[in-house]
Amino acid sequence: MAASPRASAQTPQELDIQLYAGLNITGAVGAIYSVEYVTDLSPTNEWRCLSFLQLPTTNYLWFDPTGPVTGERFYRAVQSKPSPNLVFIPPGTFRMGSPADEVDRVDDPNREGPQTAVTISQGSWMGKYEVTQGEYLALMGSNPSSFQGDTKRPVESVTWVNATNYCGKLTQQEQAAGRIPAGTQFRLPTEAEWEYACRAWTSTRFSYGDDPDYINLTDYGWYDANSEGTTHPVGQKLPNPWGLHDMHGNVFEWCQDRQGRQLGGIAIDPQGPATGSNRVIRDGSWNFPASVHRSAQRFSQPASGYSARGLGFRVLLAPIQP
User: Cα(96)–Cα(287) distance, rounded to whole angstroms?
Assistant: First the structure.
């Protein structure tokens, strides 16, 4: 018999016993909850986040898909209110890559196709903006960027190792301050998570439409034709439908996974290849042409030694799965 609580936004820790591994959550439609568990109710046992959930109805029955075969888990739901600079990304399914007839598509098996039906099974919080020089300097004590003078510009000239170290240190800082639940971490998004967030349930070349002549791109991103040869403070261009800024230009962004071919077919939470030295790069940059800033475009570079004036990153906050 699995033990679980009833929870609401008002009384998230009120417990009762259920005959299923799950939780009845009562609260405001659209509110985001951190669904958490412990294996016993001793005062020293720490609640750990299993999932971020956006409540679809005022009374919602949530089941634990990761529940162990033996033993007990106790559950609660706590309304999640992290930094205003994070945007909730709901789970869902999308087509990753570009169709064969997309204008300016790169016809290379290591790049944009064949399209893959990808399911992102867990909700997460993604940085509304690229990590800025000011944020990086405050946490890491240094600023490697080439374009300095305004700390609201995105940090750049960082390696993949630099970016992942920042995520690890940010996790430690925010957990110590009690601003994120135990069992969650900041990390780089996988490239599937990145493209899913960039598209925001669109299937066009850009999150705002196909824009075949690149007339409207200047409203959404910085690229070679409008950047005047430099990066710009984050958030100056229009966001995508989910409220994420600079997803179509300013600086490229490191992703978590290694480069691999688009395999086609169906995939759930793809993580990329298990081996390889190159890590995926997404987005576009102030010094690249308009076609590079499409949602499906992808590149890669070595993780440990490569940095560039047009390469930064953004963070993602997600549960660490047990």
Answer: 25
